[in-house]
Amino acid sequence: MERDIRLMPSDVTIRNLGVGYGEHEVLSLDELTVDPGEFLSILGPSGCGKTTLLNAIGGFVQPSRGTITVGGRDITALPSHRRGLGVVFQNYALFPHLSVAGNVGYGLRVRGDDRARRESRVAEMLELVGLSAYADRRPNQLSGGQQQRVALARGLAISPDVLLLDEPLSNLDAQLRRQMRVELREIQEALGTTMIFVTHDQDEALSMSDRVALFHDGRQEQIGTPEEIYRRPRTRFVADFMGAANLLRGTVVDDSLIDVEGEHLPVRTARRPGTTVDVALRREQIILDADPAAGPPVGVRGTVHMRSFSGSHWEFVLTTTKGVRLTAEVPDRPGSDWSAPEVGREVGISWRQDVPHVLEAVSP
Amino acid sequence: MRTAAPPRWPGPGILVIPPLVFVVIMFAVPLVQLAQLSLRPSDAFNRLLDGFTTENFRRVLSEPYFADSISYTVVNSAVVTLACAVIAFPLSWVITRTSRRWLKVLVFMVVISPMLTSVVVRSYGWRIVLSSEGPVNSALLGLGLVEQPLALLTSRAGSVISIVHVLLPFFVLMLNSTLKALDESVLRAAQALGAGPIRRLMQVILPLSVPGFVGGAIVVFSLSMGIYVTPLLIGGVNQPLGGLRVYTQVMTSFDYPTAAALSFVLLAISLIVAGLLSAVQLVGGKRIHG
Q1: 8 Å CB contact of A158 and B193
Q2: pLDDT-wise least confident of A66-75, B65-74, B121-130
Q3: In whole angstroms, what is the distance from residue A28 CA to residue A58 CA?
Q4: What pTM value is reported for the model?
Q5: How many residue pairs bridge chain A and chain B with CB atoms within 8 Å of each other?
């Protein structure tokens, strides 16, 4: 059964793409390749160009330069209805005047498939998204999650070379969103369709994707696996967007120390002494020496400036002796003899020397 | 301890009373009086008599002078409504969906200009355009398409054209709200699924515009059933339009009961057509909005 609905996935290659002109260029992309069968997320804040990129691939905006190739076929000049791509929108965009089956079968009807073929394909797709019992319903009789499943089935019914998803989970509530992430990924793996998924939610991008492309100001900041993006951000923007709370600018002292505002912090680096670097340190990587499992004594001293309790964790704002401010997150340990240091208390601040990440690029 | 509840504010519903009173006094009361009038007998000098009769309705429905005007008016209104629908759609599309602001404003101003000009100016404008020495006839003569100037002013075409011009803004305004609400991503979804422009129009845009067409048709048909000033000024009083017949009965024959009966027949037809159109929309709308 699953073998029947699998198809040869296509790759997508985008070269030298621009949308808009001159100062009004809203997207500029040198190269982006999506592998056949890959699930690629385009991640970024609103206005970063991610939706523009999706619209350019879908044929809804005309690029001012560059080429888009799908499965070796140059589609840059084709109108949207000749591209053969599936699209799923944030607001579902179902046809309100057609039944669920009518929606899912619309692309097949346009293509001219005969009735029997259409019906079997629609049934197959509805089964895939678990909505076989709803074939005769109208879209407005369905919940948001069900509507989005119909939209997904509709986009996939035409066996598209690539499925484009524009923030498809953003209108759903948190619990459903989590469930749909898993379902979407399962469907993607079952069909093997290449999917390009636009989102502003880094959790979503990290948890679902083979690779993540992070966009900022109409440009691609970094592309890589979720682990790469998370652990080895290339720029300050990526580090910040991926939630690294401590972004420190300093000068390399030697291969294991950098100087930040006069404070010598233990950071392993291969950069030449004297180089200005940005260092990202995640809050959960900081160890307080009130902690019984304290790491090696490579830290600095500081005081607790503020603390707050979030249930499973304590968050501390710390100030080192030289005035560098750091944010740390420490798991709460109820029942142990550990207690969270109070405000004003002097603490030892340390981390494993290899965890702070020296960013590849120094932003101006 | 709780103190006694303060006097209850009757709620914002109370605000509906003044407009309701206004509507009742200005519309319902005269309508009832007109209904009474249409059932009053009158003598040979059109003086009202006491009593009750259905004679006025019998006359209106059987004498060709009135009966033919009713069928003529219904056909006229249907043609006007259809023409408005066809013309209004592209105009409304441009107004609601173009990204070019100047074009939007320009088309909108052109469309509603008949509503902003006085009926006299507008109608005499049409008289000039359609007269035997006017630009239309000059062009037709000059091109050798006709040998004699056409009597456009008194022709049915002339009256339909001028009525369409007057009523078009109503249709466009009704259609605008529907087309404005049409979700761009639904059109994109259809396009991505392979639907070209014609398919998108026929299979998505028009089905979803039905409420606007129904609303526009109800308004334009009803207005067109009773219109008389514009045709009076352009084609004269002798065209067999229901509104003109009512006008003649009142202004020349002083036959108020017959005029009232004819008005009521025209009104009844408008209401029936509006009811049928609403039913179409209700059935269709139920399929969409459940």
Answers
A1: yes
A2: B121-130
A3: 17
A4: 0.83
A5: 77
- What domains does chain A contain, in order, with CATH numbers? 12-237 (3.40.50.300), 245-358 (2.40.50.140)
In percent, how much of chain B has pLDDT > 70? 95
**pLDDT score at B73:** 96
Q: Rounded distance, CA B63 to CA B50, Å?
A: 24
pLDDT tens by residue, B189-223: 999 999 999 999 999 999 999 999 999 999 999 99
- Tell me whether strands A86-88 and A276-281 are parallel, antiparallel or unpaired: unpaired
What pLDDT is recorded for position A2? 41
Return d(Cα A284, Cα A326) in angstroms, integer. Answer: 11
Contact B189 A59 (CB under 8 A): no
Contacts of A74 (CB under 8 A, 6+ apart): A67, A68
Residues of A in contact with B186 (CB under 8 A): 93-96
Contacts of B205 (CB under 8 A, 6+ apart): B182, B187
pLDDT at position A243, please?
87
Q: What is the pLDDT of residue A6?
A: 57
pLDDT for res B38: 92
Q: For helices A144-157 and A115-128, give the axis angle rounded to 10 degrees.
A: 130
**What does the DSSP 8-state code read for residue B290?**
-
Separation of alpha carbons A14 and A29, rounded Å: 8
Is residue B149 very low, low, confident or very high in pLDDT (cuts 50, 70, 90)?
Answer: confident
Nearest-CA residue of chain A relative to B196? A81
Residue A86 to chain B, least CA–CA distance (Å): 6
Whole-number Å distance between alpha carbons of A304 and A323: 12
Residues 154-183 of B with CB under 8 A from A: 183
Residue among A91, A93, A96 whose CB faces B288 most closely: A96
Domains in chain B: ranges and CATH: 59-288 (1.10.3720.10)
For residue B193 the two structure tokens come to 């699924």
Helix (H, G, I), strand (E, B) or coil at A307: strand
Asked if B194 lies within 8 A of A82 by C-beta distance, the reply is yes
**Torsion sign, CA atoms B187, B192, B198, B203:** negative
Of the partner residues A82, A87, A97, the one whose CB lies closest to the CB of residue B189: A87
Q: What is the percentage of chain B residues whose pLDDT exceeds 90? A: 61
Mean pLDDT, to the nearest integer, of A75-82? 94
Q: What is the mean pLDDT of the segment spanning A294-318?
A: 83
Query: So what's the ipTM on this one?
Result: 0.83
